[in-house]
Specification:
The protein is α/β, with parallel strands linked by helices. The protein has one domain. The protein has 3 helices and 6 strands. It has a 6-stranded mixed sheet with strand order 1-2-3-4-5-6, with helices on one face. Strand 5, helix 3 and strand 6 form a beta-alpha-beta unit. The protein starts with a strand and ends with a strand.
Length: 135
């Protein structure tokens, strides 16, 4: 599967989904002007990735655990809706028996960002692993 890489800007996050490297990262600021246009290719890529993993599982191929790393500094409410959609898609993968881990990184002084991750986890009914960092 082709990697999906989007460079970070002042308003949009860094995206690096690369199956060959086992890298799945969303990081930085997320407040793009047109949130739908930004996140639509990401959700499409993840949907294709899900299909690929399900095919591998059906073929009884070994699947290494997949770690999705959310490392946001800030995201606006428009982005939150699409992040929820991404988490739901990851949850669907888990329900298919795929080994998916969701890691939520937040600055140790940013209680709001941790709470946002906890809310996403609760709303989607998906367990997250939380990691405090010193930014």
């Amino acid at each position: 599967m082709n990697p999906l890489k989007i460079e970070q800007t002042n308003v949009s996050p860094f995206v690096n989904f690369d199956t060959s490297l086992g890298t799945y990262i969303l990081a930085g600021y997320s407040r793009p002007e047109n949130v739908r246009d930004f996140y639509f290719p990401i959700i499409n890529w993840l949907d294709e990735f899900k299909k690929t993993l399900i095919e591998s599982k059906k073929a009884e191929k070994s699947i290494d655990p997949v770690n999705f790393d959310f490392k946001f500094i800030y995201f606006n409410s428009s982005s939150a809706k699409f992040l929820y959609d991404i988490v739901i898609l990851l949850n669907d993968m888990q329900k298919e028996g795929l080994p998916i881990n969701i890691n939520w990184y937040y600055d140790k002084d940013d209680d709001e960002l941790r709470e946002a991750g906890e809310e996403l986890s609760d709303m989607a009914q998906v367990p997250f692993k939380f990691f405090e960092i010193n930014a």
